[in-house]
Write a structure and sequence with these properties.
By secondary structure, this protein is α/β, with parallel strands linked by helices. It has helices at residues 23-32, 59-74, 92-103, 127-133, 142-161, and strands spanning 3-5, 38-41, 53-54, 56-58, 90-91, 109-112, 121-122.
Length: 164
């Protein structure tokens, strides 16, 4: 698994890191004006738009996979290392464009050099999770991830703007 993203579809539970290092929350915060412009680290990768590509999985899909894994073990199934992923990646520019579409305006960003050690693309093969656990991602399309993460960030942004 590369990284979980989004929040529960009801917008009640989301991710909060201090400091925040995950791309989607950083892009959303830049779009909402609660953080500086998002940085694009590297625009010269051998990818369609020159930015790094990552495989994102919605947190609800991640949770359902863990439940399936526990069921598998409870029924006597063997331990296994399983990729929990979608098998499809999104570039940094695709994430920024999806957020811009969701909020209705451009997202401020700045371009910078690559970070040492960042590979151009990280996409996992979820076929073992499908065959062993009968699991596949159901909520990990980019629009759902962005929509749910945006609901969470808006709640957090409003809480900061209107405490109490």
């Amino acid at each position: 698994m590369r990284g979980s993203a989004g929040c529960d579809r009801g917008g009640e539970i989301g991710e909060e890191h201090d400091p925040e290092t995950h791309l989607i929350p950083l892009v959303l915060r830049a779009a909402l004006g609660s953080a500086p412009p998002v940085s694009i680290f590297g625009t010269d990768y051998a990818t369609p738009d020159g930015t790094a590509i990552r495989d994102y999985i919605h947190v609800e899909d991640l949770a359902s996979a863990h439940v399936r894994a526990l069921d598998h073990l409870a029924k006597g199934g063997a331990n296994a290392a399983v990729n929990l992923a979608t098998g499809r990646g999104y570039s940094v520019r695709e994430i920024i464009a999806a957020v811009a579409k969701a909020v209705g305006h451009d997202v401020p960003f700045r371009e910078g050099p690559r970070r040492a050690g960042d590979p151009p693309s990280l996409i996992a093969d979820p076929s073992l999770a499908r065959s062993l656990l009968g699991w596949q991602a159901e909520h990990s399309d980019l629009d759902t991830i962005i929509r749910t993460a945006l609901a969470w960030e808006r709640r957090q942004h409003n809480a900061v703007q209107n405490p109490g």
